Structures are given as C-alpha cells and as structure tokens.
C-alpha cells in the first residue's frame, strides 16, 4: 500500500509536463503567432524592406508614397471620423439604453431580440440595409405614393460622402453588442441597491445610473468599446458595401493596393496597413485620454449635488432608437426575403409583382458549395477553438491560479489589431508554410477570431461553476478527466453550446480572413455575398445574403434549443 | 523550340483541316485527358454577371460528368486580381502548386501576365476544338488589345460595347459623344457610367477618346509620357463638362455594367452599357428589364474585343484546365453560351468549319427582341494598346478621386 | 489496515460493511493566506467511528482545512504539516486517490444525472457488472428510505431526500474518512435533527473517522465527540 501511494505521488509529479499544462502556451501560439508574424511581415515592406521584390531601401519612402496617392488623405480622414463617430454613438446609445431600462421587462425583451441579431453577419445586415435605404430601396418604394415620385430620387443615401450610412450600418451591430456586454457587466456589479439608494436621494433614473453604476461597469466594458473602435476603423466588408468608394475607407484603400497588378504597389499598401494600425492604436490611446478627462469632470459632478431630470426624455429617446435599430435589422432580413422571392419588382411598386421560387431553384446549386465551405469552416474553427479554450480553462482549474486581466488583454489582440494590418503578412507566412488556399490555412485564420469569442463567452460560466462540484466529484474518487467529461462538460453544456454558436456566427461573418487565407480557392456565403453586392441582379444577391444571414441564425437558435432538449428531464439544468 | 513547332503545327492543321478527327484521337490529347481526370481546376473569373456565373456552374457540372474534372469558380470583382495573385506567388518562389489554374482574361491583364512570364503555354494548338473550329488567323484572336497572343490564351467569346436604353422612356438615344453631352445637360442625373476601375467604365472613356481623338493610329501604339497628356486633353475637357450632370452629380458611380443595368431597371438612369449585344434581351427574358428596352451603338461604331482563357504558369492542374478550355470551345458549349436566354456571348467559332447540324443550331438561335444583329453592330473598333487603359484609369483617379 | 480497497461481493454488504480501525491524523497542520496565519500548527487525531467537531467563526479557515485534507486546497493558500490516514502520509496524494469523503452544506447532486446515476458515479469500478452495480445503488437508496428513486431527477426531490442521497453517494465511494463541511446548516429544524442522526449513525456504523466543521453548537452536541475551536476571525482587507 505504501509503495502504491508513493507511485501515485511520482505519477502526479510527472503529469506536470502533460499536454494540459502546455495548453495555454499552445493556444497562445495558435492564435497569436499568426498575428505577430503577420504584423511583422506587413511592417517590414511598409518600411521598404521587401526581398521578394528586391527592395532593401529601408526608410520612410513607402509611407510618403502612400500619402501621395490620390485620395489617401481623404481616406484617412474618413476612417478616423467614421470610427470615432460610430464608437461614440454606439457607446452612448448602449449606455443610454442600459441606464434607462435595466431591470425592466422591455430590457429583457430587447435582449432576447439582440442576441440573434448579433448572430447575423454584419455584411448581410449592411447589404439588406442598402436594399432598404438606397434611393431605389424599399423605404422609398413604400413612401413613393406619399412623396409623389415614380422614379428613385437622385439623392445620395447610402455610400454618402460623410460616411453616415456606413456609421449607421456599424451601429446596427455595435449597439446590440455593447448593450449585451453591459448586461453581462451589470450582472457582476449588482446595481439594483445603489440605484434604489440614489433614487431615494432624489436622483433621476439616468442621473442615478450615471453616477453610481456607470463608473463601476465602465472598466468591465472598456475592452469591448475599444474593439468597437478598432472594428469600425478597420472593417472591410461593411465598408465595401456602405462606405463611399472614391476614395474608400483606409482598409479598403489598402486592400485595393494589395490587389493591384503592379506588385510594387504592395509597398505603399503595406505602408497604408501600418498607418491603419497606428491610427487604431492612436485612437484607442486618445479614447483612453478621453476616459481620464471624463472621469475627472465626473468627480466634480458627483459632488456638485445636482440631481438631474427625471430621465423621461432620455428614456423615450433610448427606447425609440433601440426599436428603430431592431426594426431596421429585421426589415433588412425581410426585404432580402422579398427580393429573393420576387419574379420582378419595379420601382415604385411597394411589393414585388409576383412571388416565385425560380431564383432559389436556379441558384441553389451554386449556393451549395459556399454554404458547405461556410459550414465546415465554421464548425471546424469552433471545435478547434473550443478544444483549446476548454483545455486552458481546465488547466486553470487544476493549477488553481488565474491571471484574468493579462489573458483578457491577449485575447483581445486579434479584435483590436486591424485585420488589414496583419492578414497580408499572415498570408505570406501561410504561403511559406504551404497551407495557403487549403483547409488548414482557412480554418486556422478563422480560429484567430473565433477563439477569443469562444473564450470570452465560456470563461465566465466556467469559472462561476461551483467548485465544490469538482471537489466533491474528486473526493468521490473520480479522476480529474472523469470530472472534466462527466461533470463539468455536461453541466456547462448550455454555455458551451452558446459559445459555439457565437463562434460559428463570427466565423460565418468573416470576410478578409477567408479572402487572404483562401487565396480565392474558398468562397463562403459572406465572401460570395460581398462579391455579388457590387452589382447585378438583386434577386440573386438576395438569395445569397438571406442564406448568409439565416445560417448562423439557425445555428444560434439550435444552440439555445438543443441543450434544453438534451436535459429535458433534468429540471436542475434549465 | 517546341513553341515554334507547336505554332507551325497549329497553323498547318488550321489551313488544311485534316486534323479534325486526328486531334481528338491523338496520343497527346489522350494523355492529357487521362491526367486531367481527378484534378480540381480553380477558375478565377469576373463574377459581376449572373448569366456567366450560372453558365460556369453548368460547365462545372459537365466537366465533372464528362471528364472527371472538378471545376470551381473563384469569383472576383476586380480583374486586376487575376494578375496580382499569380505574380505574388512568383515573387515568393511558389513556382508549382499555384492557387489558380484557369483565368478569364484579356487586355491589360493579359499584357501584364505575359510581360511577367506568368502564363503557361503556348497550349492552344493542343486543343482539338481550337484547331478544328477556330480561325486562328482572325486578327481578333491573334492580338489581344494589340498584344500578340502567341498561343498563350484561347479565345472564349467576342464582345462588343453597346448601350442600352428604355425606348418607352427615351425616344431617340444619343448616338455620339456630342449628343450624349447635350442629353446629360438637358437631363441632369439621367446618365452615368460604371466605376472607372471597372473595365466597363474605362471602356466608356476609351470609346469617348476614340471619337474625340484626331489621329486614331496613335492609340495602337503604347501611350507615352510625352503624348498621353496631349492626346487625352480633349477627353478630359469633354468629361469635365459632363461630370456635374451625371447621376449623383458624378460623385458616385455604379460598380459595374450589371449594377448600372439595375439602375436602368429601377428608372434611376436612362442609359446603361454592356459588352454583350444580347444582354438586354436576356434581362427582358428574366424579368429585370421591361419589354421596351433596346440596344444601340454609337454612329462611329463601338469598341469590340475578344475575351480569352489562359493558364497560370504555376498551375497544378494544367491538363484539367486545358480540358475545360477545350470543352468551352466545343460547338455545344459555344452554342449554349451564345443563347441570349442563357448567357449571350458571341461565339468565337468559325461558322464555316462547323458541322452542318451546329451551323443550323447557331442560325436558329433566337437573338431576342432587344439584340443587335452582326450587321447592325457593324465592324467593331479595335481596342487601343493596353497602356492607354492603364493610364486613363490612373489619370481619372488623379483628377477626380482626390 | 483499511478495508476500503477490498472488493465488495454482495449488495447488502456495503451498507453493513465497517471500516476496521482507520485513523485520520493531522500533524502540525497549518494554513496561511497572503501572510496571514489562519491556522497555527495544529495536531489532531480522529479515531475510527469518532466524530471530532471543529468550531470557529466564518473565515477562520475551517473549510480550507477540510480542503487541505481532501487535497483540493486553492493555490492561494500555503499549507504546512502532514496528513496521515492509517499511518500513511497522504499529504501529496491526488484527491481522488485519498479515499476521503466530504459532504458540503449543499447536497451538490449533479443536476444532469438521475439520482441513481449520481450514486453509480461514486461507486468504484470493481463492483461487478451493470446489473450488480445497479443492485448496489438500489440497496443504498432503500437504506436511505428512497426506494425506487433510481430514475428520478434530483431536482424533484425534497431537501431532506437530496441530503440523504448525497450521503449515500459519498458512502458508496468507499471513503476511509469522512469530512462534514456544515452539512446541516441549510436544512430546516425538523429535517435537521433527523438528518444529523442519519449521518452520524452511518459514519459510526462504518467506523469512519469523521471531522465535522460547524459554527452551530447544536451540531457539536449532536455529534457527541470532542470539540476543538480554531482560529480567530480573519478580516479581509
């Protein structure tokens, strides 16, 4: 007996070098190495070092060349302006809405609608929005009678010079995203009592929230806000659809340079990517400075004793805007469905001439392949991410120590660094590894963006699982792996499946990673939709975009329904 | 050396016609057929036209059924990507296993591919259908935008620039650039052209240049630093006058020809443009255009060209690509391609060489209500040297996209 | 020698089986958290069938002491000293190999398993084929007055039933010592008394050395064994 115990001690010491202990390291390599290497492989040509093109003249020449390109300056202004505007509005609206409605039934109801909205790819929403907002879009068709028009008005609604329609398209998803992030943060802060206290002292709903809750939740949603800022400055697909195109936003500008048939343009292209990176980093820094200033002013306001209004105005404003955003998103989906079923639909008719399945039957064959690629890529990226995330979390449990803030920041890196700034370099890396244009490269590129979301949505439920379940299972004689498979995984089935659905939605919505890692060989519903969005038959485009929107939505709904069904005889799991 | 022989052989067989049966039965071709089986061919092709996309889908199905070749359409919006992909691979030394196997290409992109040595071939002389049915001496196929083809690309379709209008809205369409300018001034916002980055947009500018330039011969030589400004000066004067009267005051442009067709269908503009004289008919048939839409050309004629199929030098499925190209040149595929209800692209086959049955099938094709017959189209104006296109695009952006 | 490891033949026997003279000993066990000494070096000996009660205010480190004995102490703590079970040191043995059972104030029945699956989860492998294992679980349920509850969803049981199931689950894993982490504190007054005697009688019947942690003097009285008070209140700062 003594000997066997001694053996146990030895075997435990050996297990310290197990795969599990390597999990965090492995995960970091898998998802940070391509970002870091890609960034390096972009910065070097930006500084004039590009051996493949025989260029070794290191200096700022390429940067100067980039700025001398027609439209570069305006592209830069457009990017910064739309980025800040979209972020400020999204943040403001999310705060206004949360402040006015947290703990109300309306809030819970909106929340139920917001989550599926987030599952829809952003480009699908943007394309649907064009179908709504364009001068020949549904809104003008519906209003044509009232306006007395028979032709689309010659006005610019989408792709306007100021990028306002682009900002609006960004808001459609950024506001729900920040609102849901705020909800999650509110769960950690438990604001009900401080709100009640402040209101008892005579502060209005909004005033009380801003003074007592906001300062506590802001640190918790800071990274998501930065992610929105980085996203709106660097997104490509939504900008292709919604932003002006002459000149376009910086990321589209850079993409065009990379695709130029004159390879020498890759150098100013890389320089543009570097500029984009610096702009995003600088903007986040600027936002941080703004935070500090606001905090300073805020302190003075706390102690001023001013009570503020009752908040009814802000309340109705928030409700109105939120309802409008939801209405636009679901109308976008609806107008896509209408177009895909239209035999023809001329301006200014409010509805199609007649409905037919012809467009669907004619294109269902062509849609099959991209739908298949979307599905396989999404599922694989999710499974790889899930495996890595679970191993990391399990390792965390067994090591008994966590360093949340540091991991969190690392996780956000692929969400904060503009895709355009490193994917070009990542492609170079993938070409060297010989995996470009293959499934491995494609799935890997998707994991970079899927993994953070899977981690973020799974980590909290995982960590808040009562550790005594694990401890009592161990004391019942179950091995750690048995505890992992038989206790933790089944108990966390619901958050796991939600994490998978979110991961799948992220993968299904990705545009640039597919373009770069797929080398044109792989098309997903998103890349096809964005490609077809540049022109042609609306009915055909609608078929692609509708499927693009509905597929992750279906996966999301399944993720909600499935665990409940599997545990339908277990009241404790519902 | 082999290339020369290849060219001579092609020339001989083309002249004599005795190769008809022999080419398909030849050992070389059978070897190619054998190697192609099981290959996956990635075909990078502009995806702006729904009709062509569907047609490619059909080709993929047939190629798989008949030859065991898996054909995948890599859809692109910007034809410059045809060059950049392979060029980037060459610069990093990826000389085999390239990501693309087949290109739909012509003009400045062909010229760039050829100049950089990115094309496989000559290979056209090995294709039985090219040898049997294509008039290899037709100047439309020997030169692509004045650049010698040298067997590096096989013609796929003939295109001619046409304008489309709705006769119910516009009685008399403007048939010269002077008239067009007058029309635009009188009807502000009712005319536009596709984005100049798009080939349709740049072709429109070339068409204007054709009409405005004093000495056309200069266009067939490369554009030079010293003559470009002088030659194109009247073009920009004309355009400066037109621009404020364009749709959206010339601040937005549709992305492509098909996108402009959509504008015409919605009634946003009165005129659209296309590279296919059959396109309007096709769109009437599928319900997008009202039945009153018609096609027309300018009084001086319009630019015409051929579009081609080529194989990148580092393709890993060259045999599969050749099989597909050969199939695309078959009377059956070409006939389907010309059918306005399906695709509506002019065939490159020489009617004289076709079997009677197919000659009749081609003759029987219903061109549709809005199409122009070859007689109405007249002889196309040849494409200028590709350098004009590149420079016009750059100059337009310098002037108007700042 | 402990008999916990020996295979059990019949279903009836496990319930009756006793633990012949196992002894749990703590030698100079101490606990420190971030430099604060929670428990100074303490030695303790629990004999077979004996229940020793450890009393102390909340935050005194009682529960952490049990964690240390189980082998599931968080890394944030520093622990010293040795734990011996029947003379063998188990301080560094993996928790699942120690043979120490624990009951918390919540039953912690796995909500995704049926009542019977919860029991079978605990029953070691060497207990015959499926039918035999099932019989063991059924017998244990009968013993707890839960006849025919095998397929029930734990969420549909009353608090007392769940608590008894949790006890049977722990006992089925054949522990050689039992730790009780305030297992009675959440039950209502009526159930509490009944359940106390249920737990203590089963522990005694099996001759398990039992360590009870509580802040309720009632519990200590009911346990009937020696009482030790540890630690002063540790303030979070």
In short:
The complex is a heterotrimer of chains A (574), B (402) and C (237). With 574 residues, chain A is mostly helical. Chain A has helices spanning 2-14, 19-46, 61-68, 72-101, 105-119, 122-133, 138-147, 164-189, 192-200, 205-234, 237-242, 250-258, 266-304, 312-341, 358-399, 404-416, 419-433, 439-464, 467-475, 480-491, 493-509, 512-518, 525-532, 538-566.
Commentary on this structure:
- The complex is a heterotrimer of chains A (574), B (402) and C (237).
- Chain A is mostly helical and 574 residues long.
- Chain A is 77% helix and 0% strand.
- Chain A contains 24 helices and no strands.
- Chain B has 402 residues and is α+β, with helices and mostly antiparallel strands.
- Chain B is built from 18 helices and 10 strands.
- Chain B is globular.
- In chain C, helix 4 runs parallel beside helix 6.
- Chain C has 8 helices and 9 strands.
- The longest helix of chain C is centred in the last third of the chain and has 17 residues.
- Chain C has a single domain, classed as Rossmann fold.
- Chains in contact: A-B, A-C.
- At the A-B interface, helix 15, helix 17 and helix 23 of A face helix 4, strand 2, helix 5, helix 6 and helix 12 of B.
Helices and strands in order, then pairings?
The complex is a heterotrimer of chains A (574), B (402) and C (237).
Chain A: H1 2-14, H2 19-46, H3 61-68, H4 72-101, H5 105-119, H6 122-133, H7 138-147, H8 164-189, H9 192-200, H10 205-234, H11 237-242, H12 250-258, H13 266-304, H14 312-341, H15 358-399, H16 404-416, H17 419-433, H18 439-464, H19 467-475, H20 480-491, H21 493-509, H22 512-518, H23 525-532, H24 538-566
Helix pairs in contact in A: 2-13, 2-15, 2-17, 2-18, 3-13, 4-8, 4-10, 4-14, 5-8, 5-14, 6-8, 6-14, 6-24, 8-10, 9-10, 10-13, 10-16, 12-13, 13-17, 14-24, 15-18, 15-21, 15-24, 16-18, 17-22, 18-21, 18-22, 19-20, 21-24, 23-24
Chain B: H1 2-16, H2 19-25, H3 27-36, E1 40-46, H4 50-67, E2 70-76, H5 80-91, E3 102-105, H6 107-115, H7 128-133, H8 139-142, E4 143-144, E5 147-148, E6 153-160, E7 162-166, H9 177-186, H10 199-212, H11 225-242, H12 257-266, E8 271-274, H13 279-285, E9 293-296, E10 304-310, H14 318-328, H15 331-338, H16 356-364, H17 374-377, H18 386-400
Parallel strand pairs in B: 1-2, 1-3
Antiparallel strand pairs in B: 3-10, 4-5, 6-10, 7-8, 7-9
Chain C: H1 11-16, E1 24-33, E2 36-46, E3 51-55, H2 62-70, E4 77-85, E5 88-89, H3 95-98, E6 100-103, H4 115-122, H5 130-143, H6 159-172, E7 177-181, H7 189-205, E8 210-214, H8 217-223, E9 227-229
Parallel strand pairs in C: 3-8, 3-9, 6-7, 7-8
Antiparallel strand pairs in C: 1-2, 1-4, 4-5
């Amino acid at each position: 007996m003594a000997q066997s115990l001694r053996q146990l001690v030895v075997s435990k010491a050996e297990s310290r070098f197990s795969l599990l202990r390597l999990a965090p390291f492995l995960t970091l390599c898998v998802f940070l190495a391509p970002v870091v290497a890609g960034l390096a492989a972009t910065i070097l040509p930006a500084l004039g070092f590009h051996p493949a093109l025989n260029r070794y003249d290191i200096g700022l020449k390429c940067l100067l060349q980039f700025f001398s390109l027609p439209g570069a300056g305006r592209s830069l202004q457009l990017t910064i302006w739309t980025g800040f505007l979209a972020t400020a509005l999204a943040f403001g609206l999310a705060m206004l809405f949360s402040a006015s409605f947290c703990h109300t039934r309306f809030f819970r109801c909106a929340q139920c609608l917001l989550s599926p909205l987030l599952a829809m790819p952003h480009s699908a929403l943007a394309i649907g929005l064009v179908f709504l907002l364009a001068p020949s879009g549904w809104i003008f068709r519906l209003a044509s009678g009232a306006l007395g028009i028979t032709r689309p008005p010659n006005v610019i609604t989408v792709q306007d010079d100021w990028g306002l329609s682009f900002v609006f398209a960004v808001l459609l998803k950024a506001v729900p995203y920040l609102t849901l992030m705020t909800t999650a943060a509110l769960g950690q802060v438990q604001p009900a009592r401080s709100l009640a206290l402040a209101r008892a002292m005579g502060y209005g709903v909004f005033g009380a929230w801003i003074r007592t809750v906001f300062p506590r939740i802001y640190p918790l949603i800071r990274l998501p806000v930065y992610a929105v800022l980085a996203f709106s400055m660097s997104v490509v697909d939504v900008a292709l659809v919604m932003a002006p195109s002459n000149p376009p936003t910086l990321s589209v500008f850079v993409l065009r340079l990379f695709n130029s048939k004159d390879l020498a343009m890759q150098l100013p292209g890389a320089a543009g990517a570097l500029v984009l990176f610096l702009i995003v980093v600088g903007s986040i820094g600027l936002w941080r400075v703004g935070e500090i200033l606001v905090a300073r002013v805020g302190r003075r306001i706390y102690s001023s004793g001013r009570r503020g209004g009752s908040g009814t105005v802000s309340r109705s404003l928030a409700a109105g805007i939120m309802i409008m955003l939801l209405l636009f998103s679901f109308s976008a989906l609806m107008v896509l469905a209408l177009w895909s079923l239209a035999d023809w639909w001329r301006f200014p008719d409010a509805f199609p001439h007649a409905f037919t399945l012809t467009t669907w039957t004619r294109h269902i064959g062509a849609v099959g392949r991209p739908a298949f690629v979307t599905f396989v890529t999404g599922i694989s990226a999710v499974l790889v991410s899930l495996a890595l995330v679970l191993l990391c979390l399990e390792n965390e449990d067994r090591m008994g120590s966590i360093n949340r803030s540091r991991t969190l920041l690392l996780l956000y890196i692929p969400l904060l660094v503009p895709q355009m700034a490193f994917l070009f370099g990542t492609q170079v890396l993938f070409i060297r590894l010989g995996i470009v244009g293959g499934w491995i490269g494609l799935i890997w590129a998707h994991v970079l963006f899927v993994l953070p979301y899977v981690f973020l949505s799974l980590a909290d439920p995982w960590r808040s699982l009562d550790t005594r379940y694990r401890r009592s299972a161990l004391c019942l004689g179950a091995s750690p792996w048995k505890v992992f498979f038989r206790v933790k995984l089944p108990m966390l089935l619901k958050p796991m499946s939600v994490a998978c659905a979110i991961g799948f939605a992220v993968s299904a919505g990705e545009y640039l990673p597919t373009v770069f890692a797929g080398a044109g060989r792989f098309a997903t519903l998103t890349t096809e939709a964005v490609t077809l969005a540049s022109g042609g038959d609306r009915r055909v485009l609608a078929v692609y975009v509708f499927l693009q929107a509905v597929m992750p939505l279906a996966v999301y709904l399944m993720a909600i329904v499935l665990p409940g069904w599997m545990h339908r005889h277990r009241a404790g799991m519902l | 050396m082999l290339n020369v022989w290849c060219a001579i052989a092609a020339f001989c067989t083309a002249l004599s016609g005795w190769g008809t049966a022999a080419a398909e039965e030849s050992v070389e071709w059978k070897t190619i057929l054998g190697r192609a089986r099981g290959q996956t061919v990635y075909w990078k092709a502009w995806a702006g036209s729904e009709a062509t996309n569907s047609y490619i889908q059909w080709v993929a199905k047939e190629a798989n059924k008949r030859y065991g070749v898996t054909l995948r359409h890599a859809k692109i919006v910007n034809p410059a990507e045809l060059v950049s992909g392979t060029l980037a691979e060459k610069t990093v030394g990826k000389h085999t296993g390239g990501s693309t196997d087949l290109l739909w290409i012509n003009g400045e992109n062909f010229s760039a591919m050829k100049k950089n040595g990115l094309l496989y071939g000559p290979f056209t002389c090995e294709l039985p259908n090219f040898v049997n049915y294509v008039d290899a001496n037709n100047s439309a196929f020997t030169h692509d935008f004045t650049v010698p083809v040298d067997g590096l690309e096989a013609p796929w379709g003939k295109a001619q620039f046409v304008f489309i209008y709705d006769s119910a809205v516009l009685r008399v369409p403007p048939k010269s650039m002077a008239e067009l300018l007058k029309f635009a001034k009188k009807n502000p916002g009712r005319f536009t052209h596709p984005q100049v980055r798009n080939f349709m947009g740049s072709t429109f500018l070339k068409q204007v240049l054709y009409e405005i330039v004093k000495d056309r011969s200069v266009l067939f030589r490369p554009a030079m630093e010293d003559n470009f400004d002088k030659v194109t000066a009247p073009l920009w004067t004309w355009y400066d006058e037109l621009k404020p009267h364009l749709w959206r005051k010339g601040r937005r442009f549709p992305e492509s020809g098909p996108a402009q067709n959509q504008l015409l269908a919605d009634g946003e503009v009165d005129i659209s443009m296309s590279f296919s004289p059959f396109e309007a008919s096709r769109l009437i048939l599928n319900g997008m255009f009202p039945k009153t839409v018609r096609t027309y050309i300018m009084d001086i004629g319009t630019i015409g060209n051929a579009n081609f199929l080529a194989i990148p030098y580092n393709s890993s499925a060259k045999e599969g690509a050749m099989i597909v190209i050969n199939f695309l040149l078959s009377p059956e595929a070409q006939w389907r391609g010309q059918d306005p209800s399906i695709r509506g692209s002019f065939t490159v086959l020489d009617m004289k060489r076709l079997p009677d049955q197919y000659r009749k099938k081609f003759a029987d094709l219903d061109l549709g209500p809005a199409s122009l017959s070859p007689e109405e189209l007249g002889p196309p104006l040849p494409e200028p040297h590709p350098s004009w296109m590149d420079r016009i695009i750059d100059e337009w952006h310098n002037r108007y996209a700042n | 020698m402990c008999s916990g490891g020996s295979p059990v033949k019949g279903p009836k026997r496990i319930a009756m089986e006793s633990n012949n003279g196992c002894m749990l000993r703590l030698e100079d066990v101490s606990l420190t958290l971030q430099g604060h000494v929670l428990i100074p070096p303490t030695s303790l000996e629990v004999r077979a069938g004996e229940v020793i009660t450890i009393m102390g205010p909340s935050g005194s480190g009682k529960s952490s002491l049990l964690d240390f004995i189980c082998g599931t102490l968080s890394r944030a703590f520093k622990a010293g000293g040795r734990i011996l079970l029947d003379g063998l040191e188990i301080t560094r043995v993996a928790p699942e190999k120690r043979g120490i059972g624990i009951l918390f104030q919540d039953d912690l029945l796995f909500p995704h398993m049926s009542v019977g699956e919860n029991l079978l989860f605990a029953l070691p492998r060497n207990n015959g084929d499926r039918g035999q294992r099932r019989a063991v679980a059924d017998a244990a349920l009968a013993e707890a007055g839960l006849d025919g509850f095998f397929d029930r969803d734990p969420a549909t049981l009353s608090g007392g039933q769940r608590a008894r199931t949790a006890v049977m689950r722990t006992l089925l894993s054949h522990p050689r010592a039992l730790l009780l982490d305030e297992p009675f504190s959440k039950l209502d007054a009526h159930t509490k008394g009944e359940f106390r005697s249920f737990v203590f009688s089963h522990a005694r019947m099996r001759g398990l050395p039992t360590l009870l942690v509580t802040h309720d003097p009632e519990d200590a009285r009911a346990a009937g064994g020696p009482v030790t008070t540890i630690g002063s209140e540790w303030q979070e700062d």
